[in-house]
Amino acid sequence: MKTSRGLLIVKRQRDVDSGQIASYNLAMHLRNNVKPWKRIEARRMREHPTVGEDPLWRELYLRKLGVKFRHQVILRGWIADFYYPQLHLVVEVDGASHAGNEHRDRYRNKALGELGFRTLRIPDSLVRNDMPSAIRLIKECIG
Questions:
Q1: Nearest by Cα to 137 from 122, 118, 116, 115
Q2: What is the per-residue pLDDT for 76?
Q3: Domains parsed from the chain with CATH numbers
Q4: CA-CA distances (angstroms) from residue 5 to 27, 70, 81, 92, 132?
Q5: Of 87, 52, 83, 88, nearest to 70 (Cα)?
Q6: pTM of the model
């Protein structure tokens, strides 16, 4: 059975055994294995976006690119600024909180890449000063 978010819910083991469910839904697995404090942190980040994230979210929320992005999504324990599920595309706005943490960002990109996610990093100065260029970068990744 699918929920309103399109996630599979397995009610009985025989549903899996009979082949009604061909594969385990990765999104459901990731969602169920999230620590409660991480969900609270993601909610806080959605409610109080950074100066760079807020204007980009307004553009993405209005679906100006023609696709639906999610905001502050937890993926394998990391909180992604923006996520486009159909292409497994993570968009990160790199602002002051990323300064000096490049090694952590590289590790995160590598770990998410091994799981099939692609990461696009956009400097928050580009989002604040030249939004059309930031949108163009995202369009190029979407194809």
A1: 122
A2: 83
A3: 1-33 (no CATH), 36-142 (3.40.960.10)
A4: 10, 12, 19, 23, 30
A5: 83
A6: 0.72
Strand partners, 91: 82, 120
pLDDT, one tens digit per residue, over 101-117 is 788 888 988 989 998 99
Residue where the block lists tokens 């928050």: 124
Nearest to 34 by CA among 80, 89, 66, 1: 80
The structure tokens 């600024």 sit at: 81
- Structure tokens of 111? 């770990």
Structure tokens at 33: 């294995």
**Euclidean distance between CA atoms 133 and 37, whole angstroms:** 35
Q: How far apart are the first and last CA of the chain?
A: 32
Q: Encoding tokens for residue 123?
A: 């400097």
Q: Which helix (H) or strand (E) holds 130?
A: none
Check residue 130 and give left, alpha or beta (phi > 0: left; psi -120 to 50: alpha).
Answer: beta
